[in-house]
């Protein structure tokens, strides 16, 4: 498992954008993609409430988890430039 990376705090605008991206993705994703996200959420915060911001930032902090984000959500995050630069390169390679 990778060591967690320290990430700068997100601005309110970035957080709102992430929620918007997530809301649009949830409305159009396949059930299989949604289930994949819920399995990841359970790995990150077992038996806890976990916001999408916390979930995504946890994946950024631990690149070993980034590949487990559903591809459709990752693509939307990339389009809105919400992926850290190192994650974009890793996601493109994977």
What would the keywords be for this entry?
mainly alpha; 6 helices; globular; 94 residues; single chain
Provide structural commentary:
- With 94 residues, the protein is an all-alpha fold.
- Helix content is 67%, strand content 0%.
- The chain is built from 6 helices and no strands.
- α1 packs across α5.
- The longest helix has 17 residues, at 12-28.
- The chain is globular.
- The protein starts with 11 loop residues before the first helix and ends with a helix.
- Residues 87-94 have low confidence and may be disordered.
Question: Helix and strand layout, with pairings?
Answer:
Layout: H1 12-28, H2 31-44, H3 52-61, H4 63-66, H5 71-79, H6 85-93
In what range is the share of β-strand residues? under 5%
For the secondary structure, the number of strands is 0
Spatial gap, N to C terminus:
17 Å
Radius of gyration: 12 Å
Largest sheet: none
Quote the average pLDDT.
84
Instruction: Classify the helix fraction into a percent range.
Output: 55-70%
Query: What structural class should be given to the helix and strand makeup?
Result: mainly alpha
Number of helices: 6
Based on CA inertia axes, which overall geometry fits? Answer: globular
